UniProtKB/TrEMBL annotation:
One of its GO terms (biological process) is glyoxylate metabolic process. Residues 21-219 form the Xylose isomerase-like TIM barrel domain. This is Hydroxypyruvate isomerase. Keywords: Isomerase, Pyruvate. PANTHER family: HYDROXYPYRUVATE ISOMERASE-RELATED (PTHR43489:SF6), ISOMERASE (PTHR43489). InterPro entries: HyI-like, Sugar_Epim/Isomerase, Xyl_isomerase-like_sf, Xyl_isomerase-like_TIM-brl. The active site is at E131, E225. It holds the Pfam family AP_endonuc_2. GO terms for molecular function: hydroxypyruvate isomerase activity.
Length: 241
């Protein structure tokens, strides 16, 4: 049976952060994943909620902020961000760290991004997730396509650099059929897969995501990063049905 992870940057956002973990467990999730909330949160309370519920922490992001990360923007700023994220990941037992690239384009940004990834790889054995984010959702985001991810991997062929494939972003970029085939081809480098309804990032009910059965076969844990419109437990039950 597929395991499901709740993205707590999108789900249960009306609750205090540690309570989101308990709500995820109560809704039937096996795991959770964070944006960057834990870096400024009560780590003892977050750890207590993880231990109490027994849910797995799939991963967390580096600092996001108004620029959606700083990996392609600042060497000093990113190194501060990554050190903090890695410390939190180690303390909470997160499986991976998502390196958020930032809103930056051009040769200087590319050089900064590659140098920062090289620096980060030297400081952890954890997988580092890189997520292409479509221009429709974040104009100017540095890593904006699977081709951009492949270019990074060609220059930094470290197996710990893994693709975080978001169905909403990739489906928006390439169309559903092409996105599915591209994700299948990228499977050897796939670190995490996230699901939402393609047209509006809404509830990913199986009848509205016809590719669900094919996608679920690609990963042991599927992240749900979507804007909820119906009870979350109903979505979880639908995906498990």
């Amino acid at each position: 049976m597929i395991r499901l992870s709740a993205n707590l940057g999108f789900l249960f956002t009306d609750l205090p952060f540690p309570e989101r973990i308990r709500a995820a467990a109560g809704a039937g999730f096996d795991a959770v994943e964070f944006h960057d909330q834990a870096q400024t949160g009560d780590l003892a309370a977050i750890q207590a909620a993880l231990s109490e519920t027994g849910v797995m922490l799939v991963g967390l992001n580096t600092f996001m902020g108004p620029t959606m990360g700083r990996a392609a923007i600042s060497r000093a700023g990113f190194r501060e961000d990554f050190a903090r994220a890695l410390d939190v990941a180690q303390r909470l037992g997160a499986g991976a760290v998502h390196v958020v690239a930032g809103l930056a384009q051009g040769a200087k940004a590319r050089e900064t991004y590659l140098e920062n990834l090289h620096w980060a790889l030297a400081r952890t054995d954890r997988p580092l997730l890189l997520e292409p984010i479509c221009p429709q959702a974040a104009p100017g985001y540095h890593l904006a396509s699977l081709e951009a991810f492949d270019a990074v991997r060609a220059l930094l062929p470290d197996p710990r650099l893994r693709l975080m494939a978001d169905w909403y972003h990739l489906g928006t970029l390439y169309g559903a059929a092409d996105a599915l085939e591209r994700i299948r081809l990228a499977a050897p480098h796939l670190g995490h897969l996230q699901l939402a309804r393609l047209r509006d990032r809404g509830d990913p009910m199986p009848d509205e995501v016809p590719q669900w059965q094919a996608l679920r076969r690609l990963v042991p844990v599927m992240g749900l990063e979507y804007r909820p419109g119906r009870p979350v437990s109903e979505v979880v039950a639908g995906l498990r049905g």
